[in-house]
Amino acid sequence: MFKHFNIYIPLKNQAVAIDLQEPLQVQVKVKDALNVDVKGRVNANIPINEKLNIPLTQTLTPRVYFDNMVPISTVIPVKETLKVEQSLPIDTKVQVRVLGKDITLPLKGNIPLQLDVPIDIQVPLDQKVHLKFDAPVKTVLKENLHIPLNAQLKTNIPIQGSLNVPVKTALNASVDVKNTLPVKIEHGELKIPLSSMSLNRVKSGEDHSSPVQNQTK
The organism sits in which domain of life (predicted)? Predict the structure, then answer.
């Protein structure tokens, strides 16, 4: 009839020893950064926003076609020796003095000329000249090229080394305690069902160390 009754024993600052039958499931917060050895490859997306200055020196041979009037204003120096070999025809009248008198005589014929005539003059040239040509032209290109570069570089980077990694989230851990733990109960209540209790009856003349158990419910 007492199997539905319980005994409540208050506990205050009670020291007990307990054994854990199963591992404890806890959450661990790591305050310090962890040293982790890393070896492998990592996919990375690297943004690039730069202005490149590229010096360029190159010899080019483009083919040029030209057909146009070109104005020319210059002075051409002429320094030559002109050879003259020809006959000079003469048909004129000359005056001669004969016996104190001036007489006009007709002169007609060919005079052979053979001489060198030096020429040293500056010839001005100011006019338009028609130029027409189609030919390869050799030119040297020396320039600094300013090229804006704005792109996303996708690459696979090999990583090998020790990294200092901060842990910002709590970690789930399982703690397996093998030893008996001393625990102090500050405030609590021990519930003992009467159905779990039994009475011992000791017969006279028997050793108290060998009781006979008789469970009463």
Answer: Bacteria
Q: Are strands 6-18 and 181-193 parallel, antiparallel or unpaired?
A: antiparallel
**Type of residue found at 60:** L
Domain range enclosing 161 = 32-60+138-167
**Residues 147 and 48: beta-carbon distance below 8 Å:** no
Report d(CA 134, CA 189) in Å as an integer.
113
Residues 189 and 101 in one domain: no
Q: What phi and psi, each to the nearest 5 degrees, are found at residue 148?
A: -75, 135
Distance between CA 87 and CA 196 in Å, rounded? 165
Alpha helices (H) in 85-197, listed in sequence order: none
pLDDT in tens, 188-205: 777 777 676 666 666 655
- Residues in Cβ contact with 25 at an 8 Å cutoff, skipping those fewer than 6 apart: 172, 173, 174
- Tens digits of residue pLDDT in 78-126: 888 888 788 878 888 877 777 777 888 787 888 787 888 888 888 888 8
Q: Are 67 and 100 contained in the same domain?
A: yes
End-to-end CA distance of the chain: 7
- 53 plus 147 within the same structural domain: yes
Closest CA to 110 of 91, 132, 136, 95: 91
For 131, residues 6+ apart whose C-beta sits below 8 A from its C-beta are: 66, 67, 68, 69, 70
| Mean pLDDT for the stretch of residues 173-181 | 76
Q: What is the pLDDT of residues 51-66, one digit of tens each?
A: 878 887 888 888 888 8
Domains identified in the chain, total number: 3
